Amino acid sequence: MPASPTITVQIVTYNSADDIEDCLRAVQQQTYPVEKVLVIDNVSHDLTVERVQQVMEQEGGQRIELIRNSVNTGFAPAHNQGMRLTHSDYVLVLNPDVQLAPTYIERLVQSIQPHPKLGAATGRLLLKSSLDTIDSTGIVMKGTWRAFDRGMGEPANLWEKSGEVFGVSGAAALYKREMINKIEVGGEFFDEDFFAYKEDVDVAWRASLLGWKAFYCADALAYHERGWKPGSRRAQPLFIRRYSYINRYKMIYKNLTGSRWLKHLPGLLAYELASNGYMLLREPGVLGSWKTFFKTLPKLREKRREIREKMDTSV
User: Fold this and answer.
1) pLDDT tens per residue, range 5-14
2) Which residue of 28, 137, 141, 250 is most buried, as measured by CB atoms within 10 A?
């Protein structure tokens, strides 16, 4: 990798008019040179496109490229679309409701560039509504294969130590191109059957299986608006709850290996009985997402097989 690796910033928008200008302005203020900014719009019905175009006109349109999809492909397919259009050494996957501090990219690149097996990095993401509160410092995976944003809701000053993490949140994730190419399955970095939600966890799990590591840099700051809050589950649209629910099972099916999971079996069974009992009584519509699981099962099986083959060759 060159001494000054190139960076592409990718932002997927969908009705993001309230946030996109501030997001783009923050990218423009980065101390690390950004080769290109890709904005991939998934058929927004508000003023998102117009506001992106305004920023492009003001800065001369030299670095920002706007791609307007004809259908809403979802978060995962749209970001894969962007990755196929660029060849930079790093890709920063960025949510439109995130504002980066000026040194965010610079600090992340400095953190992982010298280490060949560090393939992803994130900074200290703070809640815009409460700047002394953590939004995410990476992803942590529990024994029942439930993933959480590490440190969410905790005081920011408790998370001043950098270090390795299981994975990074897709809200502001820096990925090394070498890792992107190495862990793609079926030509996809993010699993496009996920559409959205937990695709970053799936990538983190797959990357760890294939020998890649992720890093949390406490000095790289960003501020996340976050469209939903913990505890507001019932206020989320049904399709969001369905994706969030079923993508966990898709992820488990593809990535769970060996027999170590047996030690977690009692806790797993207790959680599954409790959570699915709740769904049956309170949110039965969510369980309809099992139709999509079985519909995509042949593809999931093929992806599981390819992951196993990659694991065998990476040893």
Assistant:
1) 999 999 999 9
2) 137
